[in-house]
Design brief:
300 residues, alpha/beta, 2 domains, six-stranded mixed beta sheet, two-stranded parallel sheet, globular, disordered C terminus
Length: 300
């Protein structure tokens, strides 16, 4: 059973306890990845590199930014392990979504001097309680000091859908990140939560009151208690089942035999994976680098 929980693991349990069981308890390995997640990772990587350059006082052109994205895409894409669920789309469609996302963000915030970056891909680990029984972890895309002095937590979103403001005001992920930043950085002032919906070129923000933060803390501990007390791990069918990486193991889709094997303690079957040559060991490996003002070697 997990000892430390992330917003994604909590959401996984609420979406489908069986999926949670496959991923976090049985730890069934998967040899594939959804195209949406694949493109999202590439966009995040390029934006992180962009801000590393900005910290060095260097602002690459939009052409270089897009070129680097295509380079990362080509280095890591393998059609045998990337799942495309929608019949009316192909890899080229999603590749262009990534390009559009980066172009939107670049043109909106160029020359990237409107705020100060305090952290990129910032890992946080903290407890929701004083006794250390409810541990949470996460990775914040970008922590920012805004021009008005307010601390901001930024999250890059590459999906099409932009939630309603009411949903964002109750969003658990960035809400938990705020709790973590307040505790780890001893931040007592206002904190602004910011969602960058790069594909649709929209920005959404939210600020939480002390009562809202306490309510989130309490609700999250209750979800963790439910996970720890769960024994049945039932399937929960939804429109998202088509994107589930454990569909072949799921009893709802003919995976009863594999499911029985896992529950009997025989362990998961090894997935059929691409050859080592087809999938790079490190998807963040880069070609020749350049030296920044701080002596660090970097390449967009």
């Amino acid at each position: 059973m997990q000892k430390t929980f992330s917003p994604s693991s909590l959401g996984c349990f609420e979406k489908c306890p069986k999926q949670y069981w496959f991923r976090y308890i049985a730890k069934v390995p998967v040899a594939s990845e959804g195209i949406e997640a694949f493109v999202g990772k590439r966009v995040h990587e390029v934006l992180e590199r962009l801000y590393l350059f900005v910290e060095d006082g260097l602002v690459p052109s939009i052409e270089k930014v897009v070129y680097r994205y295509h380079q990362l895409f080509d280095e890591t894409y393998d059609e045998r392990r990337i799942r495309i669920v929608r019949d009316d789309t192909d890899a080229g469609f999603y590749r262009q979504n990534g390009v559009r996302s980066l172009e939107n963000y670049y043109r909106r915030f160029y020359p990237f001097d409107g705020d100060t970056t305090l952290g990129l891909e910032k890992k946080i680990n903290f407890d929701l309680d004083e006794e250390g029984q409810y541990a949470v972890r996460g990775i914040i895309d970008r922590v920012v000091r805004a021009p008005d002095g307010v601390l901001e937590i930024h999250d890059f979103k590459t999906g099409r859908r932009v939630p309603r403001q009411e949903e964002l005001d109750n969003d658990r992920q960035l809400g938990l990140y705020e709790l973590g930043i307040r505790k780890l950085w001893n931040e007592s002032g206002p904190i602004r939560l910011v969602w960058q919906y790069v594909l649709s070129n929209q920005v959404r923000t939210s600020e939480r009151t002390a009562d809202q933060r306490e309510a989130l803390r309490h609700k999250t501990t209750l979800v963790i208690d439910r996970i720890r007390n769960e024994t049945e791990w039932k399937t929960r069918k939804s429109a998202l089942c088509g994107w589930c990486e454990y569909r072949d193991h799921c009893p709802l889709f003919g995976g009863a035999e594999k499911q029985a094997r896992l529950e009997a303690g025989h362990g998961p079957e090894k997935p059929t994976a691409p050859s080592p040559a087809a999938v790079p060991d490190d998807t963040r490996t880069t070609p020749p680098v350049r030296e920044g003002s701080d002596g660090q070697l970097r390449l967009l």
